[in-house]
Amino acid sequence: MTVEIPLVNGTSQYTVEAYSNVAYQATVEFYEKLLQLKSLSASSTLTLFHSDSLSLEVVLKEDAQKQSAADARRKDILNSRDSCDWRSHVSDSIVFNTADIEIISSKLRADSIRYQAFPTELYAMELYTVDPMGNIVGVTKTKNAVSTMPTAPPAAKGSFASTAPSSSQSTVDLSSAVSTAKEYPSLPTKNGNVQKAIAVMTSGGDAPGMNANVRAIVRTAIFKGCRPYVVMEGYEGLVRGGPEYIKEFTWEDVRGWSSEGGTNIGTARCMEFRERAGRLLGAQHLIEAGVDALIVCGGDGSLTGADLFRSEWPSLIKELRETRRISDEQFTRYQHLNICGTVGSIDNDMSTTDATIGAYSSLDRICKAIDYIEATANSHSRAFVVEVMGRNCGWLALMAGIATSADYILIPEKPASSREWQDQMCDIVAKHRARGKRTTIVIVAEGAIAADLTPISPKDVHKVLVDRLGLDTRVTTLGHVQRGGTAVAFDRILATLQGVEAVNAVLDSTPDTPSPLIAINENKIVRKPLVESVRLTKSVAEAIHAKDFKKAMGLRDTEFVEHLNNFMAINSADHNEPKLSHDKRLKIAIVNVGAPAGGINSAVYSMATYCMSQGHRPYAIYNGWSGLARHESVRALDWLSMLGWQSRGGSEIGTNRTTPEEADIGMVAYYFQKYKFDGLIIVGGFEAFVSLHQLERARDNYPAFRIPMVLIPATLSNNVPGTEYSLGTDTALNALMEYCDVIKQSAASTRGRAFVVDVQGGNSGFLATNAALAVGAQVSYVPEEGISLEQLSQDIETLSDSFDKAQGRGRFGKLILKSKNASKVFTPDVLARVITAEANGKFDAKSAIPGHVQQGGLPSPIDRTRGTRLAIRAVGYIEANQEVIREARADEDEFDPDDKTISETAAVLGIKGSHVTFTSIRQLYDFETEVAKRMPKVIHWEGTRAIADHLVGRKKVETD
Ligand SMILES: Nc1ncnc2c1ncn2[C@@H]1O[C@H](COP(=O)(O)OP(=O)(O)OP(=O)(O)O)[C@@H](O)[C@H]1O
Ligand SMILES: O=P(O)(O)OC[C@H]1O[C@](O)(CO)[C@@H](O)[C@@H]1O
Ligand SMILES: [Mg+2]
């Protein structure tokens, strides 16, 4: 195969992936490309990144050999056969000059090789991305040049475009653009290219977000040059087989799916698949359809079935061959079942992942329902027993309990004897009532059990509340409302990113790689071994069955246990003897700074109730620093006055953007001194970040600030350094997404219309980017990139193509999301007019301004429950740092604010990757912040942009 690699000014950068090992063809292509590189640019440097099971023999010329002797360790790595993920070993690369390399093709054997070549003295001019078959599918020029990447991927070839490198050593897009793959000798070919057929199915109970998962898998498969298939009706479709049930899909088939609830490819609970005979039929039908890999989006049951199917595969195909139901060629060709799980279930009962696709949408439905019930309960001063789904898992009940500050929950993971749970529930409810609460909410998980494993039904709970407390009580069973409706933003994004990662994982897999399950840990999409996840999930059920509840709880995620402890602490608040001894009890203040954001009230409520349970005194500084400087109000928070805060939007204690220096830092210090605060929690956005910096720097002059201080980031802009997540971003994302869904529907009905939506977020494109991913917007413009004329004209062209392709279809409302600060010149109105003028009557565009709607109404369950979790962590931080600073404070003359142990007692609480972290404000402010831009130096969500663009086929014009 001939590949043309053009040169710009005689210099080029190439990023090429080649796939070999079993694939003789790919090995040869790789070799050819190396030769081509050598002939094109004699002085190029070649960087070889080693990969899994890499065995590559590079013969160096004599000089280079000497030079690289020092590099022996790295060369060893190159020659090693260790299995590892290249992404975590990018630094384990070896650099040669192409002129020094000779390669003996017959000895070249590698599962996958990434190599990059560029002139030593120059930064990248061009970046090439090559699909799994070795075809160049993306060419990105770094300066004002239009990408030559095809828009919507053509049927045969993929087109995962690369992003422009920021330095000569950069490689392509981190999150997804690069994956390694292995091809098998007899895969079908199209236009001379080897193609893998990847099928996706949805199985078990449907879950909001499944459609987004299927869409991402179908489109990513096409990007990667593979053929996407869907299996209709879950395992039922596998058992029945044939083109009616196993269908090839196209790019257009999944248009608009991310905004749709349920699963459009059907699902089922299939009894036949539980039997070997059913699975035998499934194997036969998959092979007949020519499917190489199967991605199953389903719950614990579906993935247990998938794992069993994988383990039985050798015996299934053996039997199929023996009974002549498949040919010898098919037997050889389909030796391994390449399988991958993306967990879709509202129950969130799969071990090793923090969230399953659909769980947060279901939680959203539950919380809304309980918020509604709360109103009528309050009117009648009634008790409500609410039954929620979740099968044998109490996650939905627990999280709903936190998010709605329910009085009591009953979950399968923490059974008690009948007497115990009844006494405990009555004790808490009676105390709440005695303190003036008019409502009672008890949430019962459908799988709730007593310690003797007898089920606890809502009726049982109803009886206890009536008989023992005399409460006017009603039961509400939410039922399938919990599975209905469209997915919340989190589920759409999770499902999309997991879909992309599932295809990457399938392409990465070798016969030796364990089948993966795509999971999320905190904020990070990760791969876990399917077999292990299934084993752990099963062992929870077994432990419960064996009444070993401690073990069952231990097997649940640590976050589950943390949430449960938090719930128990905040729902009994100051009713019992506090946990800490008198000498450990503190006065802790909380203040809101910046614009309102969802979850702020939850943080204040949880901080205060948790403090009460510990024995601390929680104080609220009302109306921010200016309020304090004017001494408007500083109050000890009491339980009754905070009822309902958990579910409220905005900021109950008031917030504004004034920093301590602007307000009068001397007065702020004076009141800190007056109230003798032992610790401070600030909740807010960038002004809150600056506030923490100012207070920490003022410790030298004002001893009152020599206390532990911590910031809980809360801003829809998500621009606080030190975290990848801020409270309020999820609420804002949902508010914007719902708005976009509505106007997209209007645009679709009008047929030829696009809307330009004005998005908030200051200098951060986080909201626009993630909303674009959630709603499938055609374009998003963000401050980090601005709007160039070239990009705009390219986007109008793409939009026009897209309108052409969508002709005759129902789903083609088009959206363009524009961050307010992406351009001062191109306002939404100007953009709409330019687009309309350029569209030559083919379509028109209008502007839409959601404005402060984006700050959200009711906080989302994610912001509520994270608000609780982070607030309680913040109190823990203040407790843990008390001693350090107390000792230092004791000696006035010796106090050194620059001492690292001291400066580290003022920190930002963040979620980074899969960890909750505390990073000192000094470190962040001095080294990790672009203060003038009000932005962190490193943008953690950059990879999401590329995915959002790829999934709608947007062509990108690169700028510096
Ligand atoms: N042990 C098993 N062996 C083979 N197949 C199984 C097994 N368990 C489940 N399956 C298959 O997976 C299908 C779905 O499983 P199940 O009804 O437990 O739902 P799920 O995937 O756990 O989803 P959810 O719990 O969200 O409804 C079953 O109908 C069956 O076809
Ligand atoms: O919709 P079906 O088949 O009645 O199943 C209900 C079950 O499915 C789920 O909604 C999802 O597993 C469970 O929470 C519930 O127990
Ligand atoms: Mg299940």
Automatic annotation (TrEMBL):
UniProt GO MF annotations: 6-phosphofructokinase activity; AMP binding; ATP binding; fructose-6-phosphate binding; identical protein binding; metal ion binding; monosaccharide binding
Catalytic activity: beta-D-fructose 6-phosphate + ATP = beta-D-fructose 1,6-bisphosphate + ADP + H(+)
InterPro entries recorded: 6-Pfructokinase_euk, ATP_PFK, Glyas_Bleomycin-R_OHBP_Dase, Phosphofructokinase_CS, Phosphofructokinase_dom, PKF_sf
Chief localisation class: cytoplasm
SUPFAM superfamilies: Phosphofructokinase
Keyword Transcription regulation annotated: no
Keyword annotations from UniProtKB, A to Z: Allosteric enzyme, ATP-binding, Cytoplasm, Glycolysis, Kinase, Magnesium, Metal-binding, Nucleotide-binding, Transferase
Region feature (Interdomain linker): 573-586
Location of the active site: D347 (proton acceptor)
Membrane-topology annotation of the record: Peripheral membrane protein
Domain of life of the source: Eukaryota
Residue positions binding beta-D-fructose 2,6-bisphosphate: 657, 715-719, 753, 760-762, 846, 852-855, 934
Residues annotated to bind Mg(2+): D300
Entry binding sites for ATP: G205, R269, C270, G299, D300, G301, S302
Enzyme class, UniProt record, top EC level: transferase
Gene Ontology BP terms: canonical glycolysis; fructose 1,6-bisphosphate metabolic process; fructose 6-phosphate metabolic process; proton transmembrane transport; regulation of intracellular pH
GO cellular component annotations of the record: 6-phosphofructokinase complex; mitochondrial outer membrane
Pathway of action: Carbohydrate degradation; glycolysis; D-glyceraldehyde 3-phosphate and glycerone phosphate from D-glucose: step 3/4
Subcellular locations according to the entry: Cytoplasm; Mitochondrion outer membrane
Cofactor(s) the protein requires to work: Mg(2+)
EC number from the UniProt entry: 2.7.1.11
HAMAP family: Phosphofructokinase_I_E
Self-association and partners: Heterooctamer of 4 alpha and 4 beta chains.
PANTHER family membership: ATP-DEPENDENT 6-PHOSPHOFRUCTOKINASE, PHOSPHOFRUCTOKINASE
Job of this protein: Catalyzes the phosphorylation of D-fructose 6-phosphate to fructose 1,6-bisphosphate by ATP, the first committing step of glycolysis.
Name of protein: ATP-dependent 6-phosphofructokinase
Organism expressing this protein natively: Lachancea fermentati
Upper taxonomic lineage: Eukaryota, Fungi, Dikarya, Ascomycota, Saccharomycotina
